[in-house]
Amino acid sequence: MNLEEQLLTHLRQIVPVNEALAYKARIREDALAKPRGALGRLEDCAVRLSAIQNRLKPGHENRLIVVCAADHGVVAEGVSPYPKDVTRQQIANFAEGGGTITVLGRHAGAKVILADVGVNYDFPPHPAILDLKIAHGTRNMAQGPAMTREEAVRSVLAGLEIVLQEPRVDLVAAGEMGIGNTTPSSAICSLFLGLPPLEATGVGSGLAPEKVAHKAAVVQRALEINRPDVNDPLDVLAKIGGLEIGAMAGVFLGGALRRAGVIIDGFIAGAAALLAEKMAPAVREYLFAGHCSKEKAHRAVLSHLGLAPLLDLEMWLGEGSGAAAAMYILECAAAHFNEMRTLEEAMVNDTLDRTADK
Amino acid sequence: MNLEEQLLTHLRQIVPVNEALAYKARIREDALAKPRGALGRLEDCAVRLSAIQNRLKPGHENRLIVVCAADHGVVAEGVSPYPKDVTRQQIANFAEGGGTITVLGRHAGAKVILADVGVNYDFPPHPAILDLKIAHGTRNMAQGPAMTREEAVRSVLAGLEIVLQEPRVDLVAAGEMGIGNTTPSSAICSLFLGLPPLEATGVGSGLAPEKVAHKAAVVQRALEINRPDVNDPLDVLAKIGGLEIGAMAGVFLGGALRRAGVIIDGFIAGAAALLAEKMAPAVREYLFAGHCSKEKAHRAVLSHLGLAPLLDLEMWLGEGSGAAAAMYILECAAAHFNEMRTLEEAMVNDTLDRTADK
């Protein structure tokens, strides 16, 4: 079996969430000792988690954040304010525990895995860095395909297999580090959402606003030169994607395979979610939008996926930071659902009531 | 010294937050190993917490939620879908650990104190219920003052002293349980915000929409009969308030006295915050809006206080549930600020870099 067949075999095993169980979960939710609907979206999340995990007591304790790292040839076009080398520096910083995602991941109670799928640097062996390097970064998509189809498949499988190897997963998120990676993300969004490149292109990690038109022109050139097939997500990933974007899509697919709640982070994760959903449409029902990033087209991506963000805190860092922060919201959802008494239980157990009115 | 003088003595000790420290905190925030501003409102919260707590390493570990409970004479006017007795039942349920706020408070890592300041029922002694009862509920504010000025003062002192007695407080929130308490809250908001009663009155815990006009008419009658003095918050509290609303205002004042971050929950907490801010305007700088409730006038209250909500999840339960959920957002704020490396530290400690480019 070649690699692509291996991936397709995985994809065929992704099942729809259990809508019959969602119905039962809603009955329990409505019976809890509070006015119906009073916990708003926490209630909907609890019901959804039940359907995803296929159990009436959804778990939230086993949390995984996979930070996928890779470099991008398109940085040569001047689309980022940072040099490529910052990818390597930040992964080293994360590995030593000083980065945003390592701090927020720790506070989210999540296991954080740093996966190097394509950084343009050979790290010395380090216990915190998982070496799954497929290439030393992509090629410049403004001049030709970012990678081969086989590399694209391998990137997706890399992310997917990380999730499959975890003993337990209730909630999973993907983060990223890859200087230049909003540019392929904009190309993917432009293609899948049918947006003109300028509407799909933002400032990323802090590009000067006057350079956004240039960045959008690079996106447009990548689309024109490569002509990716919108109905073939692996063709899209190979021609205008990134190695860490493929790996993130794989993490999302792996989350659905494991029947875990899947939390999208920001814009780049959104592009990866679009790819994952094209590969296996049932994935959509496993997705939660951790937050709404300030990056220009992120809200359009969420709207396309039918998702409302759990948090809206004007964050635009990436790395998985918004998804990490949102894990606690899903904890609130699962916890109230699992641990609250129903109204009936509360009445029966009203031991403090010494009156005779029962 | 009489009770009101005692309260005024406390109020005079509330100091403005340390804006000079906020300036220093912003410098540290901007030096962290991420693009400036990329963590959005988490960054602003970290800077604000530093100024509030008067230290460059703001704490978030010591968390207190005070759930204040009391009954309301105005329930006789048919303003709530629930009978008064539910206040007692729910406090008993909270005490046994089965209520929303007990579950979410536990998951927020907070100490939850249930304070009975005016429930119309004498609970048998219970380790989880703090007996600070001032009266067996308020009188019907649609027929005259809800309470005496002395009762109002005592309710504020009750909340304030709970916070003063805690050994350590970094973050504090107030929750409530009191059937009928959105009606006095609407009266308070109508008065302080200059809103017509109908614009300040919503469905509370689930009043049939066609009964909201009646509820607003009750609010209007309470305002007309009592003519509370908008410049005298204790007069407002006594005439159109509630015992738990006074206690919540006291919790907020106590939080400011202890230099803790103060988290407002929903609409009733918002009304209490308006009272606290009238008593001591410096309190405003200590406030965070935990979330935006679906209750009609809550957004107007937050806007009046100059606050943007941390969460917006369509919750409207009260009890402190939204504030409990928001405590984790402030944890993310303080944690990234305290534990991330600066860019300089990240470069110096880049032990994974074997190249000679430093």
What does this structure look like?
The structure is a homodimer of 358-residue chains. Chain A has 15 helices and seven strands. Chain A has helices spanning 3-12, 19-31, 41-53, 85-95, 100-107, 149-165, 182-193, 197-200, 212-226, 233-240, 243-257, 267-279, 298-304, 321-339, 343-348, and strands at residues 63-70, 111-118, 129-131, 171-177, 261-264, 287-291, 309-311. A seven-stranded parallel β-sheet of chain A has the order 3-2-1-4-5-6-7, sandwiched between helices. In chain A, β6, α13 and β7 form a beta-alpha-beta unit. In chain A, α6 packs across α11 and α10 runs antiparallel to α12 (267-279). The N and C termini of chain A lie far apart (68 Å).
Brief digest:
Chain A is of the alpha/beta class and 358 residues long. Chain A contains 15 helices and seven strands.
Q: End-to-end span of chain A in angstroms? A: 68 Å
Count of discrete alpha- or pi-helical segments spanning 4 or more residues of chain A = 15
What is the CATH C level class of chain A, in words? Alpha Beta
Q: What structural class results from the helix and strand content of chain A? A: alpha/beta
Largest interface: A-B, 64 and 64 residues
What helical percentage do the residues of chain A reach?
Answer: 40-55%
Labels describing this entry:
alpha/beta; homodimer; Rossmann fold; globular
Task: Tell me the layout of helices and strands.
Two copies of one chain form a homodimer.
Chain A: H1 3-12, H2 19-31, H3 41-53, E1 63-70, H4 85-95, H5 100-107, E2 111-118, E3 129-131, H6 149-165, E4 171-177, H7 182-193, H8 197-200, H9 212-226, H10 233-240, H11 243-257, E5 261-264, H12 267-279, E6 287-291, H13 298-304, E7 309-311, H14 321-339, H15 343-348
Helix pairs in contact in A: 2-3, 3-14, 6-10, 6-11, 7-9, 7-12, 10-12, 11-12
